[in-house]
Every structure is written in structure tokens, then in C-alpha cells.
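Need C-alpha cells for this chain, all 582 residues.
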Amino acid sequence: MPAACDSVLEDIEDIVSAQDLKPHDRQFVRKNVFPKVRKRSSQQSTQIDDDPPSDSIIPGVQKIWIRTWGCSHNNSDGEYMAGQLAAYGYKITDDSAEADLWLLNSCTVKNPAEDHFRNSIKKAQEGNKKVVLAGCVPQAQPRQDYLKGLSIIGVQQIDRVVEVVEETIKGHSVRLLGQKKDNGKRLGGARLDLPKIRKNPLIEIISINTGCLNACTYCKTKHARGDLASYPIEELVDRAKQSFQEGVCEIWLTSEDTGAYGRDIGTDLPTLLWKLVEAIPEGAMLRLGMTNPPYILEHLEEMAKILNHPRVYAFLHIPVQSASDSVLMDMKREYCVADFKRVVDFLKEKVPGITIATDIICGFPGETDEDFQETMKLVEQYRFPSLFINQFYPRPGTPAAKMHQVPAAVKKQRTKDLSQLFHSYNPYDHKVGERQRVLVTEESFDSNYYVAHNPFYEQVLVPKDPVLMGKMVEVNIYEAGKHFMKGQPVSDARVYTASITRPLAKGEVSGLTEEFRHTPRNGTNWKAHPSAEIPVKTSFSPWMPSQLPWQQEGSGLKILSVSLALLAVLVMVYYGGMKTEL
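Here are the C-alpha cells for all 582 residues:
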């Protein structure tokens, strides 16, 4: 009998003769392959269980807990990821303890949010949970020490979350951080018609663009979301129409800067809004997201007309950040305080009752006492009903982190002083006794009321009557607090159903067309987007997840080691190294 090493093989393919079927042919000619198993003793009983155990490494059967931090854009990403995972067979759970895998969707705006994110990673590891990371923190700084060895899904790769979860469950580390491009042009992100699970079945969050045109010195989000990339108008309108067909009665438009929408694709925000307004059914409402002052200035007239539309909330979030021009210059905000005032004054005049929300950063590097007093005067002048006050936190890698910092005690005191000013006035006291039309969409945090909003997107608490949910009703305002009013439904008023069809049940997957209902679990190899980098693995496996129907075709991971390993396994199958029976 010849020794096993009598001859030298120049290539692994030398094992196979010319007359043998090629591995590719053997892989795809077979329709069913049944592994030959050893016969069990007759005394042993075999129990058949349709449901694999919770610790099974078979993808698509595990329970997944999803935690999202940050803005509505991030929340929309989290809904899309939940929908795709549920459509593939995973069970989305609200109980982190029973979950097999934690999907942590992060925010990089402020230090506390990242601290919570980091602590959650540690807690998951201590509980022996599989972990997949998403959002702006790992996208902006994937090489941080506490992210080593963990799977990451990039902000533009959320349509591939199933693949990353599958590989993570198998014990691999996969990182997909590439940008989506079409002929070299950066796209807005993943498709808008992906399956999703809305946190609130009555509210659809639509990202109209990703990234921005600014380069603010304090902002870390820019590192993650990049430059402006807008979705085409027709795709956004189609998404809105699909949402209304699924019982949605309120749409939120979101992005890092909605005012900059369309500048990269030859259109603008008002053009989009007029198209969307045409698609909104009677009783449903549209809420516009945050816009920076520079990009709304040239559209003031059109924006005023749109904000006066009965199916658009008279609400706009315009961050000022500081009332000092010198501080704004150091922030590279590309506007002055006079620009901000011009926008606010114009809209207040042309859109009576409009709600203007704004943001302020306390203690930005170089901010003097005089600078801060200018900000205090601005708040006193406009008495913003919604004011987001943020103590400055230097974010690693940003220019502001290298500037001369304001002492921590001073930042803390300025934040406290501004908060006291904000709480010194009640913006809704004069509205007690009014009769208002409100749309009921949510339950209050204490579960004692339903939450509705009037045409100015002011919060109105109404009795917790299931008949009211998803309805447009008239109420009498009988009480006002700092952040809300309370209303009693008018008995003789019409209750209007805002949704044109029955809303989806809580946790039900949206967008489950036939394409997604018949997702294959095997039979094709995992295909990567051509712009995505090669996954990093902590252990090796030649088997990759199947191509999902919502991913782009014509893509492939060109990993030589994977190809050779797959070929080796097939050769072993052919020569009896792995006994199979056709």
C-alpha cells in the first residue's frame, strides 16, 4: 500500500481526475443531501423537537434584544434592523435577559450616550450574550479598544444585519462599514422599502437624507454619517404611501439636516414636501425634523406656506447652539445670530402659533461670561416652548476637543442657570380654555394618559380611552404644565379615524411583500456589497449566510481562503471523508 505522502500535489485540484464531476457541479446537481447517521440502540428513544434549543447555532431561531440610543434617524435604523431579523425568523424580545444576542444601536453625540453603550457591551459580555454593534459610535471609531473582536454593522449597511447576526451567532466577528455607492456617487443608505417593526405602529419615521454639508467642530456624528446624500423624491413618496397603507397616521421626516435635503441631487426640501403633502390622507399629519438656519433661509416663503398646510404640523426644530457670533464662528456653524432671528421672526409672523424648538450648548470652548449672557437674553426674548440644553462634552477626534476648555464647574453652572431660566416660564398657560383639534398616537410614560398633539405639535394628554387611539378628536384644554396640556374630549364633536386602514399590531413586521415572505435560508452564498470591506473573523468557517432578497445583486466577497476551504470540504465529500448518501 503506497504511503500517503508518496507524491507531491502542486495544487489541491490534483486530487480530482479529469473524469470526476467538478465540485461546483456536485454542489448544484444534488437537490437533497442526507447525512448518514449512526444507528441508535433500540433501547434509546429519540425525541423530535420542531424548535431547536435556545442555544442552537442554527441561525434564524434565536431571540434578539435591540437597544437604540439617540435621534429619530437612529430609531428608524433600529426599526429596519428589527424588521429584517423578524422577517428572517428571529424573535425580537423586550426582555434582555432571555435574549441570545444583543443588538446595540449607538449614538455618538454626547459622552453619556457612549458611556451607556459601553456599559451595555460589558453587561452583555458578562452575561455571555452574543453582541452586534450598530450606529454612529462604531462607524466613527471602529478601532476603539472596547470594540475589539465584536461584530459591527455600519450605518449604511443595515440591510445586511441578518448576515452579521448569523455569523455572530456562529462565533465569528464580522464588520461591514462600507458606503453604498452607485457609479461612484454616494447613496443615502439602505433601501427604504425594507421590512421594519415600528415602535409605534401609528408613526412612520422616514430618513430623507443622511449626512450633512457642515463641518461643526464639536460634532462626532459627521464622522459616522459623512457628507450629504439624499434619497430621490419618488422613493420617499412611495415609502410614505406604503406607510399609510399599513395604518400609519403620522410621519416624521428625519435626517442630520433636513434643510439641506436635495442639494446633492438637484432638488430641494420644499419640492419634496409639496409632493409628500399630496400623498397624505385626510386626518394624517406630517412632522418636519431638524434643520439648520443656513439651508432654510432661501426657502422661507415656501416653508411658511407648507407649515400652514392643515396636514403639516406648524413645528420646526432649528438649533441655534449659541447666541454669540464669536462662539458660532468657533463652532463653524456658518450662520450668525441675526440669521437665526430672521428665520424665527419670519416664521412666527407668517405661521401664527408655530412652535420653534431649539438647541443650546453650554460651555463651548472659549465661551465667555458675556457670550453666555447673550444666549440667556435670546432665550428670554423668544421663550422657546421646547429647548434642548446640552452641557458641552469634548468628543474624541473633533477639533473642539483640542481647544481650550471651559472649566467643568463653569459649564455645569451655566447649564443650571439656563435650565432655571427655561423653567421660569410656562408656555401653555394662556391656552387653558381653548378648544383644540388633536391627533392621538401614543401612551404617556406613566401609562395614565394617551398622548396627542395639536396642530402646533404641542403635547396634549387625553383620557386613556382605547376608542381615541389613532383618532383625530376635539378637546377642551382644562390644565397646562411646563411641557404639556390636558384636554377633555368634546362630547358632541366628531371623532375622525386618521388611518386609512387598520394599523399593524405592535411588533408586526411592516413591508412584508412576497419578496420577503419567501426568504431562502440556503442555496446561495453570502454576497457582499462591493464597497464593503472584507469581514474580520475571530474564527474560520467556509459557510456563509444566504443572499437575502433585499440586497443588491452582482456582489461578492472575494476571500481566497473561504473559496479554498469550501473546495477542500467538497473534495472530502467526494472521497468519503464525510459520508453522505444521495
